[in-house]
Amino acid sequence: MSLFKIRNFWTTHSEHDESFDQNSLIVHKLNSDFDVIITASHSGILRIFNPNCTLIDNGGYQGFSPNDLVVEKSCDSPILQVATGKLVLGNPSTQLAVLHPRSLTVYSLVFHAGKTDHGNQSYLQVVYEHKLHRSAASFVIGPFGGCQNRDFICVQSLDGILSFFEQESQVHHVTLPDFLLPAPLCYIIKTDSFVTSNSGWEIISYRYKVLLDASEEYSDPIYAKPKMLSEWTYNLGEWPVDIQVINDVNNRQTWIVVLGEKNLFCLSENGQLKFMKKLDYCPICMHIYVIDTNIYTIITSETQMLLVYENTTLKWSAQSELLPVSLNKIFLKDIKGALVLLSEDGRLDCCYLGTEPSFFIAPPLNVPEIDFVKAEEELKNLEKTLADSYNIDPTAQNNTEKDLQVTLFVDSNIEICTYQHNIKNAASNYMCRVTIKLQPQRNFQEVQVSVYVLRPLKVVPSIHFFSNLCDGKTLESHVFVDEAQDVPSLELEIKVSLITNLGVPHAISKKTMLPATLILEACSPEKENTHRITLIINQSAVGLSKLFPEYIDIENQQSSPNAIGLRGPSGNTGTILLAKSSERYRLQSNSLSLLSVVLEQLILRLRRNFANASDFKIIFNSSLPSPEVFEYISEHFAVKNEVKKLKESLSQVCAQFRLIQKRLITKYRAKNPSSLKSLEFLLDDTHADILEAAGNLESENEKLFKCQINLSCALHLIKQLIGLLNIDDELVTYLNSIFCPLVNDIEGQAWEDVMDGSLCYLLRTVMAKTEKDRLRAPQTSFEEINNMAKFEKHFSQVLERIPKQNSLKESNDGLFTEETEIQPDKSDGSSSDQKIEKPIGSQYGEFSTRLLSARKSLMRRHTTGEGTNEDLI
Known about the structure:
Elements: E1 4-13, E2 25-28, E3 36-40, E4 45-49, E5 69-74, E6 81-85, E7 95-99, E8 103-112, E9 121-131, E10 136-142, E11 152-157, E12 161-166, E13 169-175, E14 186-188, E15 193-197, E16 202-207, H1 208-217, E17 232-235, E18 240-248, E19 253-260, E20 263-268, E21 273-278, E22 283-291, E23 294-301, E24 305-310, E25 313-319, E26 324-330, E27 338-343, E28 347-355, H2 372-391, H3 394-397, H4 400-403, E29 404-410, E30 415-416, E31 430-440, E32 444-452, E33 457-460, E34 463-469, E35 473-481, E36 491-500, E37 505-513, E38 521-523, E39 531-537, H5 544-547, E40 563-567, E41 573-578, E42 584-589, H6 595-609, E43 618-619, H7 626-669, H8 677-724, H9 729-738, H10 751-764, H11 771-774, H12 788-801, H13 805-810, H14 840-864
Antiparallel strand pairs: 1-28, 2-3, 3-4, 4-5, 6-7, 7-8, 8-9, 10-11, 11-12, 12-13, 14-15, 15-16, 16-17, 18-19, 19-20, 20-21, 22-23, 23-24, 24-25, 26-27, 27-28, 29-31, 30-31, 31-35, 32-34, 32-36, 33-35, 36-37, 38-40, 39-42, 39-43, 40-41, 41-42
């Protein structure tokens, strides 16, 4: 258990679905005695908080109250950044500047005091507004040019143009050289210069006077980019996440702190490196301040760790409850120095760094005299135990499940889904709650809990991560249907990956079933359907009202007790029938994809009902539905090829679009450019082709997603039916690994390519008809499938040979063993039951000779024309 903690004493959260970034939070006095918190969201909502943290009777703080929200203003456009400064001529007070994508607005906070706290009135009054000609990225405020008692504004656009505003009027604008993407921009008062980063990952500084002269020399900053001389440059070697400037009042120096993707840099005002710190994590944001000539840097990592550095020395680290995207320091009336954390979804916390003291005081012990002989023997035994523990594999020695107890619980009560997803015209729109409890018996360095379901089911959140886990945790996730498609399986699996303090990795896996009411609804049963599956059990039949009580209508139970109807998320319906005179269950539907989850539920409930019967079996004697499954495969193959063609077409028109752009740039740079109407027409026409190709590709990808789900349902159905056949367990393991319901088409290798290679391997090894076929080398390469005829042949052969494997195994022909049995030599007259052992070298030699003989015989038949040029299988 860590001693260092982050203590929250004031917390609030945005009421709407808003998003924030590192420029959405500032802390400033804003014409008051103490600091206030100003937040701005991308939804255009501006808030000003004045936390009133008063002590209560139990020694804590009051926390958030509605009176703490001073101003809440909704703007018409998103807010990119907020800042404060003296932005009105002749007014010594501080104003608030708000940057929108196409405008810059300056507000003044007006406050009217009331007789009580709830009678105070505050509002923001617009002082002036600037319309921007280009889309803005960020801005910075400062006394440019050494002016006194007033501040100017510099706005950086997305295309690298700096626009300068001297309060109510725009002065000039200039384009930054070597610009690619907007980088953090800051201003140094002491040197009157701007610091940013260019496309070469260099920290570069420009004097304000140089920028002013460049803007006066060239009237158009786009078509005539000036060659500006930088004051200094520093090769950073990585993209800067944030750049901040801090002034050391004691030494009268200014330091530039740059937070990179992998390192922390501190530069002087002249670009000289003071120190550098290599980070072993991914930083998110930072805040800097100076105490007694020492630079303190607060950094948050992607694992929700808050780390405090004094120069390059780590002084404090603690785990935060949220992942902040922006942080700052604040000085309140009752708390002199606190931290403000803002998360991406709008949670705002005021906290301080504290410790968790231990109130346990060990009682005094009567220490006896030390027996050195006994202590030496105990030390030797301990050293031997430690040595043995390092020599033995820790994963085999420690019981992981005892060290970390994982409890999985699925709530059977479904709720109305509150998540935004892509579901359209689905039969149901529900979600169920999944609770995971972790109870560690010792400390773990890292613990990650992943929740898996099959598409179109979706889990939110699907991953939970903890570092330095020492206390019990209760996790919650929600499962819902993301698309109006049939679900292959309702199985839910969690995988817990953990690393102990010794660096040893472990894994825990648990499975459970989701409630059927999440996706299936009761409907009227149908008499005739296209697809039928019949199951037989060796026990007395159980009524459907007992197996599926949630789908039986009590009022109509007597009218149709032996049939129930189920409707899936796609709207397809299925029926379960119970024979009146035999122990048979029939599943039928017009859609084969729906039968997967219906069959899964029937098998699960039958086995649960006959759990006490040791000889209970479910028998499937019919043939496997290979033609119906292959229809899904053919449809998936056709749509996949169409997606491939559309991607190639989109790549071609994009390449053409880039060539036209390069030609336009060449024309722009010419001293006497010719007419651009033809290129403009060609550019518009190509852009329209790109939009059309992208739209077609998007619709075809949606169709491919549906084909993948339907194929996944068919494969899971085949997998369940194979498990009901009376075949060898080893073969069932092979088939389950091949008929996996996860259908993925990765770049360069489709599902059919991998499936065909797996089918060929089965047909040439464990499912070979004769021993001669087994002697042929198995296929190990994966080739792209261009013709479905060969794939259909392999697929049909595997499904046809599955029911025959039981008889083949009983014939003892060696098809299911890794080594070929060698018959004893009967020439000496000994009995046939006598076993003659041969040296292992003789066995290998005989095996190789037979293999060579079989290959020569095959080649001779091929050259003489005796045999046909059939496939090897």
